[in-house]
């Protein structure tokens, strides 16, 4: 018996004969000639020193042929797995990227962005942190994150590089059972909030934005701050409190059926209100290709959702106020 096994191509031909029980059918399956298939099988038998088929009974495998067939399947499967594993290294980028986002983006934008990034870069390692803005800034500063995306703040950190990442429309958010007199999707004016209970996001994250808007109100009702997005939404859902929040938090509610809607959303008339999102990264750092790909993936999904929000606003320009 020869010390070496037949090649992969020879094994494929043998397997074809074994499974079809025909040299003619095996030749058609392997895009070869019948004589070529027969010759290869004969060479394998001579190499191994055993008879693989009983030709007196047509093309019937011997006991040795069946045993060799099972081992051929293992070898061919191992070969396919090895090629598949190596093929993945030819796809996309490798390495690690660490990013941080606040709940504004983590709710609906992060998952599709993550899936896109990993589909294009299956060998990459991506770590994501969901935390308040001040914590994310500290982590970028300490080198624990490659970048973070946060709502605009009044005093961006001077020791880090900050650029505008996106601008999301803001909406008045209230419970679907709130007796505000506003219909879902109806355009409203900021001064119509007078007398309503308004819940403002904590000033550490939204001071420059929400503060300037609230100053425009004349004689508003009670206004309190709550530094927790989930707690804010839960309070709105269960009470008469309302809030002005980024539309990116409510992508699900814009196109949902009334029975599946969690909140009532109202865009503001005119130019509306917008909240800028900032990209924060270490100063004087050359971003890796994977980091740029991660930023691009999040930005693409964010812009797609902002486009939906803008369409929701423009589609309601002719909304008529429900008579009370």
Task: Write up this protein.
The chain is of the alpha/beta class. It folds into three domains: 8-84, Orthogonal Bundle (Arc Repressor Mutant, subunit A), CATH 1.10.10; 93-158 and 279-311, Periplasmic binding protein-like II (D-Maltodextrin-Binding Protein, domain 2, 3-Layer(aba) Sandwich), CATH 3.40.190; 168-274, 3-Layer(aba) Sandwich (D-Maltodextrin-Binding Protein, domain 2). The chain contains eleven helices and eleven strands. The protein has helices spanning 8-20, 23-29, 34-48, 63-88, 103-106, 110-120, 133-141, 203-214, 229-238, 251-255, 289-314; strands at 53-54, 60-61, 95-101, 124-130, 147-151, 160-175, 198-201, 223-226, 242-246, 263-267, 274-282. It is elongated, with a radius of gyration of 32 Å. This is HTH-type transcriptional regulator ArgP. GO terms for molecular function: DNA-binding transcription factor activity; transcription cis-regulatory region binding. InterPro entries: LysR_HTH_N (IPR000847), LysR_subst-bd (IPR005119), WH-like_DNA-bd_sf (IPR036388), WH_DNA-bd_sf (IPR036390). It comes from Pseudomonas fluorescens.
Fraction of helical residues? 40-55%
Query: What is the end-to-end distance?
Result: 96 Å
Mean of pLDDT:
82
- The H/E string reads HHHEEHEHHEHEEEHEHEHEEH
Radius of gyration over C-alpha positions, nearest whole angstrom? 32 Å
Shape: elongated
CATH architecture group name of the largest domain = 3-Layer(aba) Sandwich
Oligomerization category of the chains in this entry: single chain
Structural class: alpha/beta
Q: How many domain modules?
A: 3
Tell me the strand percentage band.
Answer: 15-25%
CATH fold-level name of the largest domain: D-Maltodextrin-Binding Protein, domain 2
Number of helices: 11
- Main beta sheet strand tally, sense and closure: 9 strands, mixed
List the uncertain runs.
Answer: 202-209, 216-226, 316-324
* Structure summary, number of beta strands: 11
CATH class of the largest domain: Alpha Beta
Pfam family, one: LysR_substrate
InterPro entries: LysR_HTH_N, LysR_subst-bd, WH-like_DNA-bd_sf, WH_DNA-bd_sf
Domain HTH lysR-type: 6-62
Family: Belongs to the LysR transcriptional regulatory family.
């Amino acid at each position: 018996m020869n010390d070496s096994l037949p090649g992969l191509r020879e094994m494929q031909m043998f397997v074809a004969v074994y499974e079809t029980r025909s040299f003619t059918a095996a030749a058609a399956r392997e895009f070869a000639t019948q004589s070529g298939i027969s010759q290869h099988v004969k060479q394998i038998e001579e190499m191994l020193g055993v008879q693989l088929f009983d030709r007196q009974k047509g093309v019937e495998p011997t006991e040795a042929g069946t045993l060799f067939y099972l081992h051929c399947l293992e070898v061919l499967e191992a070969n396919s797995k090895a090629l598949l594993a190596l093929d993945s290294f030819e796809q996309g980028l490798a390495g690690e990227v660490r990013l941080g986002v606040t709940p504004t983006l983590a709710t609906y934008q992060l998952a599709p962005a993550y899936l896109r990034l990993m589909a294009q870069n299956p060998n990459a390692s991506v770590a994501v942190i969901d935390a308040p803005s001040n914590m994310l800034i500290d982590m970028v500063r300490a080198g624990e994150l490659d970048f973070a995306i946060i709502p605009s703040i009044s005093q961006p950190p001077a020791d880090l590089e900050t650029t505008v990442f996106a601008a999301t429309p803001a909406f008045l958010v209230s419970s679907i059972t709130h007796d505000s007199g506003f219909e879902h999707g109806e355009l409203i004016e900021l001064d119509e909030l007078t007398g309503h209970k308004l819940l403002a996001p904590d000033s550490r994250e939204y001071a420059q934005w929400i503060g300037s808007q609230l100053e425009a109100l004349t004689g508003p009702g009670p206004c309190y701050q709550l530094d927790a997005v989930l707690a804010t939404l839960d309070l709105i859902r269960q009470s008469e409190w309302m809030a002005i929040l980024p539309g990116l938090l409510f992508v699900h509610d814009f196109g949902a059926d009334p029975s599946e809607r969690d909140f009532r959303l109202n865009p503001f008339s005119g130019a509306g209100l917008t909240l800028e999102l900032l990209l924060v990264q270490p100063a004087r750092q050359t971003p890796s290709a994977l980091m740029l790909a991660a930023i691009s993936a999040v930005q693409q999904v964010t812009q797609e959702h902002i486009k939906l929000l803008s369409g929701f606003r423009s589609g309601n320009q002719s909304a008529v106020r429900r008579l009370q």
